[in-house]
């Protein structure tokens, strides 16, 4: 019988790539917020917020880095307020908790592809939308990349328990897609079509990446037929690999830390644990991994 996966406040360790991303986000966010007025009012030159945010003005001046740098800062017009600090904290908490889980299970390359590749995809869509709608606003914030991480993570852990408002336990798939769906509805109903397009493109990228790159079926059985058609097209034109259903990720199983494949042999499991310890330290092992490692060692001593 399939059991729900528990979810703690955060991972037992944070990979280096997650720490670096958080550190750069904090550095650029607060540097731009503290120096924007100084650059524009005293020096009379574009502020760091304007140089790093995504805008038609910047791209037409060949500031190509804006397709990625907008993820590291907050909107130019924002001052330092309690609401902004809360938003930054919440974004970085999700980056730490969800991003670390993805790095641990799928590897650093997949995290980079999701966070920065997805951010680049949304940035290009955003720029094209600005050209079409004549929107000259400066776009900034990590929300699109956070959405992408959340969506892809829900494919890996659809039955994990998350706390809504820190009080109500909900399945990850319902909470993640429910909150994003409500946000999309509010943006569309309030006529914020530009924001709706950004959120929608984040949802599409996260979904397509999980289905095509990982060949993982979505958390919702009604979509499995469509998922399988996409995977079939990918296999036909780009190669072949096995489909792994999200529902196969059961709590009682031990997985390869890079591929997500279930490990059955003791020797293979020990090799995977030793590799994980060499990369992230002994504290990176979960209690279940330590328990199984202890049982294997005990069995070998008795043999």
CATH evolutionary superfamily of the largest domain: Rhomboid-like
Count of DSSP E strands? Answer: 4
Q: Count up the helices.
A: 12
Give the percentage of residues in beta strands.
under 5%
How many domains would you count in the coordinates?
2
Pick out the low-confidence regions.
1-8, 242-264
Question: Which architecture name of the largest domain does CATH use?
Answer: Up-down Bundle
Secondary structure category: mainly alpha
CATH class of the largest domain: Mainly Alpha
In sequence order, what are the helices and strands, one letter per element?
HHHHHHHEEHHEHEHH
Subcellular location: Membrane
Organism: Simkania negevensis (strain ATCC VR-1471 / DSM 27360 / Z)
GO molecular function: serine-type endopeptidase activity
Transmembrane segments: 20-39, 51-73, 79-99, 111-133, 145-167, 174-190, 196-217
């Amino acid at each position: 019988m399939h059991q729900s996966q528990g979810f703690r406040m955060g991972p037992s360790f944070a990979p280096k790539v997650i720490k670096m991303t958080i550190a750069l986000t904090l550095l650029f966010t607060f540097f731009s917020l503290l120096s924007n007025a100084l650059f524009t009012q005293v020096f009379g030159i574009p502020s760091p917020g304007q140089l790093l945010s995504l805008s038609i003005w910047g791209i037409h001046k060949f500031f190509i880095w804006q397709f990625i740098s907008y993820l590291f800062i907050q909107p130019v017009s924002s001052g330092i307020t309690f609401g902004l600090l809360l938003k930054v904290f919440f974004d970085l908490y999700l980056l730490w908790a969800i991003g670390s889980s993805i790095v641990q299970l799928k590897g650093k390359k997949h995290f980079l592809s999701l966070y920065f590749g997805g951010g680049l995809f949304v940035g290009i869509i955003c720029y094209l939308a600005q050209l079409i709608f004549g929107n000259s606003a400066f776009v900034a914030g990590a929300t699109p990349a956070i959405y992408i991480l959340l969506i892809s993570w829900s494919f890996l852990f659809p039955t994990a328990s998350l706390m809504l408002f820190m009080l109500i336990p909900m399945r990850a798939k319902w909470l993640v897609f429910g909150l994003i769906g409500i946000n999309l509805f509010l943006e569309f109903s309030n006529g914020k079509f530009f924001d709706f397009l950004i959120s929608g493109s984040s949802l599409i990228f996260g979904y397509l990446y999980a289905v095509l790159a990982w060949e993982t079926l979505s958390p919702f059985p009604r979509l499995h037929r469509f998922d399988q058609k996409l995977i079939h097209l990918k296999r036909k034109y780009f190669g072949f690999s096995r489909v792994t259903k999200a529902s196969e990720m059961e709590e009682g199983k031990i997985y390869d830390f890079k591929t997500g494949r279930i490990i059955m042999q003791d020797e293979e499991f020990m090799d995977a644990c030793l590799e994980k310890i060499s990369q992230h330290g002994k504290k990176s092992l979960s209690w279940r991994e330590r328990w199984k490692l202890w049982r294997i060692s005990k069995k070998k001593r008795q043999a």
